[in-house]
Amino acid sequence: MTTTLQNTQMEDITDLLLDSEIQESLVTVLKEMPKIAKLVKAFGEFYDIADETLSDPTVLDKVLVPLGKKVEPLQEKVRDVKEVIQEAKQRAEGDTSKINVFSLMKLLKDPTVQKNLRFVQAALNVLSERGNKTGSASI
Questions:
Q1: Contact 16/22 with Cβ under 8 angstroms?
Q2: How many C-alpha atoms does 34 have within 13 Å on its Cβ side?
Q3: Are 84 and 78 in contact (CB under 8 A)?
Q4: DSSP state for residue 32 in the 8-state scheme
Q5: In the chain, alpha helices (H)
Q6: CA 107-110-114 angle, 5° bins
Q7: What is the C-alpha to C-alpha distance for residues 28 and 33, in angstroms, rounded to an integer?
Q8: 20 to 30 Å CA-CA from 11: which of 17, 32, 42, 114?
Q9: pLDDT at 66
Q10: 116: how many CB neighbours lie within 10 A of its CB?
Q11: pLDDT tens per residue across span 45-71
């Protein structure tokens, strides 16, 4: 069975080699082989350096520890935002009071609401201006 499979594969290869387009492609690849060899050698050297670096615990400590210190404040901010969102969601689900025009008017006077509304307005203005420049107002 192996011999039959090998014979079939050889016939397929022979058929391919008889195709003029395949022959032209092979000639092109062979002409470019020195360039391809240089690329393969460069990738091999890069791989060796990366492998050596990533397997060295000293180097990893020198890179990952400072990187972790840079990322830590961002992680704390994300955690804080997540907690605020969860707490706000819980409060909103537990609040059964009706919202009417008068409660909205009172809410609009709140300095925090005013600050955030100004931010939203400014963000929308920036998006609009950028959309006018590029023809699209998406983020």
A1: yes
A2: 1
A3: no
A4: T
A5: 2-18, 20-31, 33-54, 57-94, 101-108, 111-134
A6: 100
A7: 9
A8: 32
A9: 86
A10: 11
A11: 999 998 888 888 888 788 888 888 888
